[in-house]
Amino acid sequence: MNPTLAASSQHVASQHVGGLSFGLSDDQRLIVGAVRDYARAEIAPRSAAYDRSGEFPREQLRGLAALGLLGATVPEQWGGAGLDSVTYALCLEEVAAADASVAVIVSVHNGLPEQMLLLHGNDEQRERYLRPLASGAALGAFCLTEPEAGSDAASLNLRATRDGDGWILNGSKAWITSGGQADTYLVLARSGGEGAHGVSCFIVEKGWEGLSFGKPEDKLGLHAAHSTTVQFDAVRVPAANLLGREGEGLSIALASLDAGRVGIAMQAVGIARAAYQHAARYALSREQFGRPIAEYQGISFKIADMAAQIEAARLVALKAAWLHAQGRPFGREASIAKLLASEAAVNVTREAVQVFGANGYSRDYPVERLYRDAKATEIYEGTSEIQRRVIARSVFQEFGS
Ligand SMILES: Cc1cc2nc3c(=O)[nH]c(=O)nc-3n(C[C@H](O)[C@H](O)[C@H](O)COP(=O)(O)OP(=O)(O)OC[C@H]3O[C@@H](n4cnc5c(N)ncnc54)[C@H](O)[C@@H]3O)c2cc1C
Fold it and tell me: For position 344, which CATH number holds?
């Protein structure tokens, strides 16, 4: 593990004037700065080429693993960097500002398989699966969505049937980030009757007989982050690879999705920030009617709106991360953060294309890619409509319904 991150803070900034602090500790600044430097030097210069080729960003992931970011919030006891959720969130913004594909791979790996193993695995499972994930020696994937079960996750159909003291898995998953590239798959399968309580979670290794992967989806953006189907044809899973108890799978997955959503919110903030910075620089340099277009209110107001939306999105996302770091409930805040940040990312990147004019519509300029990448943040880990459902349910609960 990288000594820089190993020496990381467990603390949010210590100055609490007025009871609230927006400052970072020295450790946090150091850690986020190290990730920013790496992302700027090694990730950003290659993101356009990876978008074109669709190559999986192995080299970039190795670099982030060396910095400790593939086991960011995993305690040092299990080989992680032991960062608090706020520091990790800020690191993710830096990665996303450089390359949204790398950021979603990192966010899924940290937010879902690792959190699920950390919170619900036994020590044997943590030793065997969490430790290599945390060091970056292995990559994790989260398998919930199926061709016929997306937002309605409780209707999933992949079947887990008892076989002696183990299980046999049959069925298919869809849209799995890092499908075929990851080593460890956390798979939600129906081991019992209908509904949420019939779902269990299994740890499945790449290379097991009967496990196969489709080709990467030909998608709008995030080309370097492969999304594939995962096919289970009589995959035998030992009893020791049931995560948590039988029937607990969906609650394990949904609880970790709260952390995952904060990660996606920060991915969205990073994408939006990159687009806004490109747009502001372009507005100052591009001249029409004898002046930089930044001098026209129609353009400068767009830049101002971008700055305002990004600031607001970052603040709500960091509040959710802060609640998580404090061990307090943060489900509603995670959904609010994911909703606002993803919508901000789509708005900001769309307006950035507008600021660039025809050049914004060209693959020779980065805002076109950022616009395509941003859209996915409104869809995965719960669509915007599902976030609104979660928020509304939480609001009505408060009013006693
Ligand atoms: C790039 C990418 C990566 C992904 N990675 C993963 C991954 O790693 N693991 C994984 O398990 N899944 C992954 N997904 C899948 C993703 O989580 C699902 O696409 C998402 O949950 C939505 O499901 P769906 O696509 O089936 O849409 P559907 O559920 O079919 O929804 C279609 C539309 O109907 C709306 N809708 C549905 N139900 C309601 C309702 N009750 N009220 C109002 N509106 C509703 C939705 O908001 C949406 O607009 C990924 C998806 C993408 C695009």
Answer: 1.20.140.10
End of a domain among 116, 139, 162? 139
> For a pocket test of ligand 1, which of 115, 151, 184 has the largest count of ligand atoms closer than 8 A to its C-beta?
151
Share of the chain above pLDDT 70, in %: 96
Do 190 and 164 lie in a common domain?
A: yes
Token pair, residue 41, equals 């030097």
User: What pLDDT, in 10s, does the model give residues 35-84?
Assistant: 999 999 999 999 999 999 999 999 999 999 999 999 999 999 999 999 99
CA 376 – ligand 1 centroid, Å: 10
Same domain? For 240 and 281 the reply is no
Residue predicted with more confidence, 17 or 400: 400
* 311 is annotated as an active-site residue: no
Please give the residue range of the domain that contains residue 109.
9-139
Asked if residue 108 lies in contact with residue 259, where contact means CB atoms within 8 angstroms, the answer is no
Task: Please classify residue 164 by burial: count the beta carbons closer than 10 Å to its beta carbon, then call 0-12 exposed, 13-18 middle and 19+ buried.
Answer: exposed
Q: State whether 199 and 100 are in the same domain.
A: no
Average pLDDT of the segment spanning 318-341:
96
Same domain, 98 and 148: no
pLDDT of residue 250: 97
Out of 115, 139, 163, a domain closes at 139
The single residue of 127, 381, 385, 398 carrying the catalytic annotation is 381
Backbone angles phi, psi at 271, to 5 degrees: -60, -50
Tell me how many domains the chain contains: 3
Residues 59 and 171 occupy one common structural domain? no
Q: Is 144 near ligand 1, meaning CB less than 6 Å away?
A: yes
CA 308 to chain centre: 23
Atom of ligand 1 nearest to the CA of 153: 21
Say how far residue 282 (Cα) sits from the centre of its chain.
29
For residues 119 and 161, membership in a common domain is answered with no
CA of 142 to the centre of ligand 1 (A): 14
Tell me how far CA of residue 319 lies from CA of 30, 116, 313, 376, 391, in angstroms.
Answer: 21, 22, 10, 23, 16
Question: pLDDT by residue (tens digit) across 279-290?
Answer: 999 999 999 999
